[in-house]
Specification:
FAD/NAD(P)-binding domain, five-stranded parallel β-sheet, 461 residues, Enolase-like, domain 1, seven-stranded mixed β-sheet
């Protein structure tokens, strides 16, 4: 359904603001379906995920895990002399890979016939955008500007480092505080600790990883402490002061008392907010939620016809594959007439803390809220590798089953490669697998994953 004709009143059929996961996917598919498309980007191609998110984060997780792998190797007969770690090598190799990916995104858009406009785009009227003084019109406008790290607001906040700057740290801190209780803070604390930094995670709530399964939250807290991360819950940072020697004096407080910590860096990861500053949403009266996220209907349309939004900026699920799916669905809807049916149920996700978390479906608390009658299966064991590695690490697995339909409603895992294992299980959950389907599946021996098909006895109520 190509909307573009010679006497088209608009410069473009689709103008996309933001070349992150959602924006790139939407522009590429729209262009392949015959639309005339441009995308504006004022920062970097590939968005958060490629530049300061999933990709560099996972490379850092791999890099940091070698320390433990070398320790584990001793139990398997390997010995090493003069092990050295060079932060600059890891950081710079990561940056090189990120830049390679930026180039790939450039090629993806170019090969699809999408015009890339470098600059900051702003809405100035319906169907009209300003990019650095140039006025552009488009039949459809898509806002895919993503999210940005939220800044704390205590005195001395200018001495803190956010999650973006973390990936470009000049040198590795010997002593570090990570502030936050979401998956980013938990992953960063794991990376820094595994790289040999004296690491403390400070979170104002009673336990991190809200919205994850309660058993998973407690289990990972235990495992992180075993690995040497200091966890300070119900604790808030009051102020930060820079010392003459460059170190930071951090005042840390709970309801009962205040303490002072001296560290080399304070990394804040207290959440992300929609990146909507300077977009011109107010001028057009585009509806936003209190936190700034853009309100859209089931077709990703805002309250202004012809203006759409998707990805992190709408604040549904801040996950790269979700933005990709949304971008594809919108492009096919606008230029191929396909209905959008985004299904946000049973989206599998992983946290690359150490050990990893993998999860799909309901948490136990959510399933009980929905009044399911449940059977719960749990298993905790030392992975085979660690029976002779000397490393104190355990794996945890949990199945949440609906007693009536026998369907498996939720699967949760903490352990090595949890993300890889849960991805396969997510297909079964999507297909509606029952506990009996799990039970009649023959396991692969010896693996940790086989535990999911050998859990015979539910835990006592």
């Amino acid at each position: 359904m190509n909307t573009h004709t010679e006497n088209h009143p608009f410069d473009y059929d689709l103008f996309v603001i933001g070349a992150g996961s959602g924006g790139v996917r939407a522009s590429r598919i729209a262009s392949q379906l015959g639309a005339k498309v441009a995308v504006a980007e004022d920062l970097y191609l590939g968005g958060t995920c490629v530049n300061v998110g999933c990709v560099p984060k996972k490379l850092f997780v791999y890099g940091s895990h070698f320390h433990e792998d070398f320790e584990a190797a001793k139990g398997f007969g390997w010995s090493f002399d003069n092990l050295k770690f060079n932060w600059e090598t890891l950081r710079d190799n990561k940056t090189e890979e990120v830049e390679r990916l930026n180039g790939i995104y450039d090629n993806i858009l170019g090969n699809a016939g999408v015009e890339i406009i470098r600059g900051t785009a702003r809405l100035i009227a319906e169907n009209t955008i300003d990019v650095e003084g140039r006025t552009i019109t488009a039949k459809n406008i898509l806002i895919a500007t993503g999210s940005w790290p939220r800044k704390p607001n205590y005195p001395g906040v200018e001495h803190t480092i956010d999650s973006n700057a973390f990936f470009y740290l000049e040198k590795l801190p010997k002593r570090v505080i990570v502030e936050g209780g979401g998956y980013i803070a938990v992953e960063f604390a794991g990376i820094l600790n595994a790289l040999g930094c004296d690491t403390e995670l400070v979170y104002r709530g009673p336990l991190f990883l809200r919205n994850f399964d309660e058993d998973v939250r407690h289990f990972i807290a235990e495992q992180m402490q075993l690995k040497g991360v200091k966890l300070s819950f119900n604790t808030q940072i009051q102020s930060v002061a820079k010392q003459e020697d460059g170190s930071l004096q951090v005042s840390v407080g709970s309801a009962e008392q205040n303490e002072v910590r001296v560290v080399d860096s304070l990394i804040t990861a207290i959440g992300r907010e929609p990146k909507v500053q300077g977009l011109g949403l107010e001028a057009l009266g585009i509806e936003q939620k209190q936190n700034g996220s853009i309100v859209v209907d089931d077709n990703f349309q805002t309250n202004v016809p012809g203006i759409f939004a998707l990805g992190d900026v709408i604040g549904r699920m801040q996950l790269t594959p979700v933005a990709l799916a949304e971008g594809m669905a919108l492009a096919r809807h606008l230029f191929n007439g396909q209905a959008i049916n985004m299904d946000y149920e049973n989206i599998a996700t992983a946290v690359f803390c150490q050990p990893n978390i993998g999860t799909v479906g309901y948490t136990e608390a959510r399933a009980r809220e929905l009044n399911y009658s449940l059977e719960i299966y749990k298993s905790s064991f030392k992975p085979m590798k660690h029976t002779i590695s000397g490393i104190e690490e355990f794996t945890f697995m949990k199945l949440i089953v609906d007693k009536d339909s026998r369907k498996v409603l939720g699967v949760h895992m903490v352990g090595p490669d949890a993300g890889e294992i849960i991805q396969g299980i997510a297909i079964a959950i999507k297909a509606g697998a029952t506990k009996e389907d799990f039970d009649s599946t023959i396991g692969i021996h010896p693996t940790a994953a086989e535990e999911f098909v050998t859990m015979r006895e539910p835990v006592k109520e």
